[in-house]
Amino acid sequence: MTATEEHLFDDVARYDPITIWLHWITVALVLVLWVLGQTADWFPRADRAAMWSVHVVVGAILLVVLPTRVLWRMRFGRSLPPVRGGLQHFIAKLTHGSLYLLLALVLLLGTLDASYRGATLFGTWSVPQFGTHNPATLRAIQAWHGIAANTTVVVAALHAAAALVHQYGFRDRLLTRMKP
């Protein structure tokens, strides 16, 4: 076992509890949003409206969680030493940066979508509408929102797969850093 691997067994090598919880809350919100986005149209019209309302509300929660997570990381978060250097460390940093940018893009496009069409939440509250309704623009926003969401899920799945390779292939206990 190398010195780096031994260091992973120390509590020092773990992220702080707030960083860990913000990570897992983000994961849960993204999964809920993606599943709702993929399946809402399978349901009857009345149920579909409620599901899209939940999608918008959960998206609004993520719109608060994501900047909170970034600000926490910048201000208080712990920067842990890389488990592996070189190319793996570069790819890990690139993946994390890509996930943050993709999440921000998905949230921006989702906000534009809800605002542009004046979405109604649970039949009682309307999201403030931006601009005049143009079906072609709305379709483009919705298409790019879906593409960005699917890309986010693919990159997140690769991120999770890499963590599992570290845990079970390299046996470097990487997952202990983010264990709640």
TrEMBL record:
The GO biological-process annotations, alphabetized, read as: respiratory electron transport chain
The entry lists its GO molecular-function terms as: electron transfer activity; heme binding; metal ion binding
Coiled-coil boundaries = none
Alphabetically ordered keywords of this record: Cell membrane, Electron transport, Heme, Iron, Membrane, Metal-binding, Transmembrane, Transmembrane helix, Transport
Is Transmembrane among this UniProt entry's keywords?
Answer: yes
Name all Cytochrome b561 bacterial/Ni-hydrogenase domain ranges.
14-179
Its Gene Ontology cellular component terms are:
plasma membrane
**Its membrane topology:** Multi-pass membrane protein
Transmembrane regions listed in the UniProt entry: 20-37, 49-70, 90-112
Q: Which domain of life is it from?
A: Bacteria
One Pfam family this sequence matches: Ni_hydr_CYTB
> Is Transport given among the entry's keywords?
yes
Cellular localisation: Cell membrane
Tell me its cofactors: heme b
The family assignment reads: Belongs to the cytochrome b561 family.
Name of this protein: Cytochrome b
